[in-house]
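Morning. Coffee machine broken again, so started the prediction first thing and wrote up yesterday's gels while waiting. Chain of 66 residues, entered below exactly as on the submission form.
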Amino acid sequence: MLLFEQINEDIKTAMKARDKEKLEALRNVKKVLIEERSNKGAGSELTDEETLKVIAKLAKQGKDSA
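Came back before lunch.
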């Protein structure tokens, strides 16, 4: 299972648990991953390594803004 698919499953779980903070964070990650995938080209998928790079970049941005 790709990391992107795992994020989708975690979104469903957060929705069922009504965990608003986790749901918002996962949706933001998914949005950035979709944008990154569209920049890469139509019909292409991100590998787990590329996904981890994007997530690390988001974490760094969050830490810097805090």
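The chain is about 80% helix and 0% strand. Going to sketch it on the whiteboard this afternoon.
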